[in-house]
Peptide ABC transporter ATPase
Amino acid sequence: MANEPRLILKDVRAYYRQLKGTTEYQVKAVDGVSLEVYKGDIVGLVGESGCGKSTLAKVMMMNIVPPLEYIGGEVELVSRDGRKFRITQFKSKDEVKSTIWGKHIAYVPQDALNALMPTIKIKKIAYDVLRSHKKDVTMSRAVEIAKERLKELDLPDYVVDLYPFQLSGGMRQRAVLAMATLLSPEVLVVDEPTSALDVTTQKIVLKSLLQLRKLGFVDSIIFITHDISTVRQIANRIAVMYAGKIVEVGDTDSIIWEPLHPYTDGLIKSVASIEPEGREKGISYIPGQPPNLIDPPKGCRFHPRCPYAMDVCGEKEPAFVEVKPGRQVACWLHQGRGGQ
Ligand SMILES: Nc1ncnc2c1ncn2[C@@H]1O[C@H](COP(=O)(O)OP(=O)(O)OP(=O)(O)O)[C@@H](O)[C@H]1O
């Protein structure tokens, strides 16, 4: 069956308004991002700190509150029954929340303890999540549903009677995932879900994410991280973000083994490889700093740090071209490939 879209972003721009003294600036945190997420996808969204990943997650959630401003483009969420929700149809955050949050798209932020109110027991959290879209649910039914979901993620029944602070980091992260997906949303966005965990616990959380998708509790996952070595263990596709833009998208293997964008190449070389051939090549780092997003460099935003920069790179922005099916890149080294 053809790819069934779940989330479609077309040339999306969202900027923060920032006041410095009496002058107002715009931080171009998401600046012309296009991405399609399909049913079954686990998309890894990777990039250095400050490149706009969390802001892009807010855009995906259609959660635009000041100082963030939606500048333009299209965000569309497609439900299992074919309904389309567009960012432009919503007048307020409350409307977004009551219409799509939890039910069609869920977000697990970076810090799991913040995601769960530490002073509320897991069963009350489950009750509140379910009640937000099923007004007639009872507490005993909510507890039943919560226990079933916790069990699917290898968590014991008694977790429902605990407070989040009584759980270990890994258990808490899994409890957050179970609670966030109680209403079986089509899309789950997880922001750095494993970065504070040890390697063994990381693997358990990655397994839980796969389990959520396998059981159909979610259709698609967007996994946000700065760590390409973690995401490659779970994602079937990777989108690489740099300075407010997606610079490369492709299936995980081709991104890892044949990176096209010099920034992707740098990211891969900057992590310790588990494969012997990778270890032999050694670890390097990307020189320089990511740009200021108030006044990003002209042309390709990576050109001041790029070892292959040509004159054109500092003059004109490269288009995001499809070099082969499912493989897109925005780099002057690859313009004109794939019949573009
Ligand atoms: N409330 C805000 N007001 C102004 N600028 C902001 C605000 N929040 C974020 N930014 C800026 O927007 C840009 C993107 O930030 P964002 O948090 O989306 O990046 P990120 O890739 O998620 O980083 P990290 O991995 O560190 O969470 C950064 O330059 C950041 O300083």
User: Anything to note?
Assistant: Residues 16, 18, 27, 29, 47, 49-55, 67, 226, 293 surround adenosine-5'-triphosphate (CB under 6 Å).
